[in-house]
Amino acid sequence: QVRLVESGGGLVQAGGSLTLSCAASGIPFSKLDMAWFRQGGGKEREFVAAIDRIGTGTTYSDSVKGRFIISRDNAKNIMYLKMDGFGFDDTAVYYCAADRLGNPGRWNQYSTNLRSYNYWGQGTQVTVSS
Could you give the CA distance from residue 84 to residue 47 in angstroms, rounded to a whole number? Predict the structure, then answer.
């Protein structure tokens, strides 16, 4: 069983920066493909960023590309999301997700789909203020 715990959310000013963390346990971290999703008020959960188990493959949604950076430290069993240039549309609960997606071809195809992930954290709230 995989346990994911997010931290680092909070209140941030528009244009500001914040870094989220996701600590994983239960399965060797280096075997897990990881991702961040978010869900704003009244909206469906949407893909933000994903990183493969090695940490060399990353992908981003168009809405965060160039502003957010996903990374991981396999020695510490932690994934990060460094977020810069906040806009009000970034206000959401941010969720950490994990699973083993398979070979690189499958990661390329499925890493942005929330149905690819069976393990989820409880979420951390990020609120952007003026």
Answer: 17
Q: Name the β-bridge partners of 28.
A: none
3-class SS of residue 30 = helix
Contact 19, 90 (CB under 8 A): no
Annotate 41-100 with DSSP letters as a single string: TTS--EEEEEE-SSS--EEE-TTTTTTEEEEEETTTTEEEEEE-S--GGG-EEEEEEEE-
Question: Do the beta carbons of residue 49 and residue 96 sit within 8 Å?
Answer: no
φ/ψ of 82, rounded to 5, equals: -90, 125
Q: pLDDT tens per residue, the chain (130 residues)?
A: 899 999 999 999 999 999 999 999 999 999 999 999 999 988 999 999 999 999 999 999 999 999 999 999 999 999 999 999 999 999 999 999 999 998 988 899 999 999 999 999 999 999 999 8
52, 33 Cβ separation under 8 angstroms: yes
Q: Per DSSP, what are the bridge partners of residue 99? A: 33
Q: To which residue do tokens 């806009």 refer?
A: 87
